Amino acid sequence: MTDANENEQENLTDGFNLVIDALKLNDINTIYNVPGIPITDLGRMMQASGMRVLSFRHEQNAGYAAATAGFLTKKPGVCMTVSAPGFLNGLTALAHATTNCFPMIMISGSSEREIVDLQQGDYEEMDQLAIAKPLCKAAYRILNVEDIGIGIARAIRAAVSGRPGGVYLDMPAKLLPQVMNDKEGGKSLVKVIDAAPKQIPSQESIERACEILRSAEKPLIIIGKGAAYSQSDVEIKELIEKTGIPYLPMSMAKGILPDVHPQSASAARSLVLKEADVVLVIGARINWLLSHGKGKTWGENDKKFIQIDIDPKEIDSNVPIAAPVIGDIQSCINAILEKIDHTWVQPPAEWTNSIREKVETNIARMAPRLENQNNPMDFHGALGVLRDVIKERPEAILVNEGANTLDFTRSIIDMYQPRKRIDVGTWGVMGIGMGSAIAATVETGNPVLAIEGDSAFGFSAMEIETICRYNLPVCVVVFNNGGIYRGIDVNPTEGEDVATTVFVKDSRYDKLIEAFGGLGVNVSSPTELKSAVDEAMNSGSPTLINAAIDSSAGTESGRIGNLNPQRQMKK
Ligand code: ADP
Ligand code: TZD
Ligand code: MG
Question: Looking at the structure, do residues 513 and 539 belong to the same domain, yes or no?
Fold first, then answer.
């Protein structure tokens, strides 16, 4: 045989196949994408290889889906986009994932380096790597086919190790058709071993934390979405129940323990934040969502903070932390649990009883409002029945965005299981709705109830076509109060334009889904709402319910109106 013949018989592989093989080797089997040059064939080949490739109508929504997938599974959710405009559309979601500490990888096709770097005007020319860098945890570019295995391994490890976050992976168009020897290609792939290694806290830090915890007269535990992400549900429950310490879940930590748990201080939030003397924070940043740990919210007394986090840089970010515990939540809590033995003294009854009383009073005060039958509904009437929907189906995933719609839903709807609530996260970003709903059911198989402000819904509304296309068990309820915060603002000039926060009156969002074969329902009373949602959740078919809400029911910015710059001069 001649050399030439030998070459002809050499088995080759290419970039397309190696990307697919590398992802599959690492158990990444679902891709959230929008096709186009240069990744159309990659998506096709992924699907042909048995991966699930879900195509979206806008990259931002595909990106939010990937971010949500990361939060729910502890594996990086993967979003794939075309170059420049597709890349930029996905970037908000990549930054959102990073901000929220969710592992995600955004793979974008890109134009040729030689042309981009000389700025010669290529198709969709953009220096994507440079733009992505400050907005994600890590950014890599793979130029050579032999490096695909290593590149994908690095991306996975960067996304999930330590504090999770978003990773950008740049794949120039030329990479994908590059060929190499099949066997060598196979060898170049990397199966990532122990992608998010345990991080054991120092014994010293555990002792310091326990000493402070024991000294507390009014202890409080705050659990955040990092705790939910860590899937340490059993350990967290044991810690809370063994110590008898009241706890406060942050929004997406609701359900780690059922919200109806006797130690939940949710309905006495102001009281516990003000009065606690020792606060154990688990997987939550003491950022704006906790009023930075200071000011009126936190009262006058001296407080000591114990903080469990995987990222040492988080410590002392807003207030001094008396006892930092650095490690993964599971290892940290296990280490603390070892110290909670028979000598542990339950918190003073005076403290726990005062919280219980407050909780009961507040819940009792709320009860009649949740039963009101106003037509059109107010937020309380509508949420009173939706609360039962989740109570009856604790495995359902609740997606939630809006302003008033968000705040009322968060405080009214009890969650019963971990990682069943997905919302706007650390940025309070509108637009996570449909992407999150899609990923939530795709990743878990569970049904989804999405409670959406009418403005919030608009940011990702076109994805209801995606929901119908894949026939997903998603029930979207649009809280239609005719605008941003409410629908009654007026244009002060009495000009032709309506006020800046107001939408078309009496719109019928339910009609949108009918265009794609889904079920649309229009309701204006709690009874109608309940039966429409029950039917949707029972059928598992794509449904959009337009819930007419009193257009004067909301308040400016919901519960965070104080964050609006206060005008000194009013004209
Ligand atoms: P929330 O918004 O619910 O208050 P944040 O997103 O502000 O929560 O905080 C989550 C925190 O959890 C981050 O500081 C992150 O570093 C931390 N974290 C995430 N995963 C883990 C883990 N496995 N172990 C320890 N800390 C974690
Ligand atoms: N754009 C993005 C991406 N995120 C945002 N948070 C906003 C704009 C500003 N914004 C809010 O903070 S809430 C909100 C906007 C536009 C919508 C509130 O209206 P809604 O909810 O209809 O969704 P309610 O129930 O009417 O308050
Ligand atoms: Mg609204």
Answer: yes
